[in-house]
Amino acid sequence: MSHDHSHGLSATGRHRWRLMVTFGLVAVFFVVELLTGLAAGSLALISDAGHMAADVVTLGAALVATRIATRPDSTGRRTFGSYRAEVFASGLAVLVMLGVSVYIVVEAISRIGSPTEPASGVMLLVGIIGLVINVIGILLLRSGSGESLNVKGAYLEVVADAVGSIGVIAAALLVQATGSAWWDTVVALAIALFVAVRAVGLGREVLAVLGQHAPAGTEPAEILGALEQLPGVNEVHDLHIWQLTSGMNVATAHLVTIGGQDSTAVLRDAGALLRDRFEIAHATLQVESGETNDCTGADW
Question: C-alpha distances in angstroms, 94 versus 3, 54, 166?
């Protein structure tokens, strides 16, 4: 199916400015929270700062990925462009989130038997400020999280960190109310578990894209049946559907036509069906005559 192979701006690229604003806010607060956490001796605050560090890395990688994804190919070898850079950035977010979770657990275990008394007043103030910044980030990234896996990775990071800020606030109030420093460690472990669960969920989505699975919500059998019902189409085989990056679904298929059928009309109808009904804008279709059995596709 002949068409222009140039691509428009990816879903992540459309939300780049949101990533930039969120990155700036989070980067500044990370430095403040880390220094305050070390001075106050709060594991919950340090763990939340660690998660903020993950936010900084994730958002920075997302911004770099959007730039790489839209960069023209000067080699002529990247025939699909560099859009997968956004997926790799999401994978980096997963690794960073898991790393932060492990660090928090290790630090919590090291404090068993000698809990450090944190400065609860400072914890409360920093936790509130962090929550405000994370809420701003959530509002900025929410609209793009449903369109881009890259933005979704950044969005989940900010959501998880908002929960971390709530945990810091809760830990500060509990320490003040009970006088027990153990609440600081308990909340830190809860933050670690929450971050790890989020990371595993995002990791599964990243692996699905890299494994070239059919996009979520897309049923290959349904697409196969719809193509076979087109006028002039007798059979469909070698159907492959995958996701190049968020918002860019790709498909290939061989269409076997009834004898004497106009192949141009079949291509036009099939392309319109994939684009309008299944949101597959980039499709490569091969038309074959059922009378001559002229399939020349790959042997797998």
Answer: 36, 9, 22
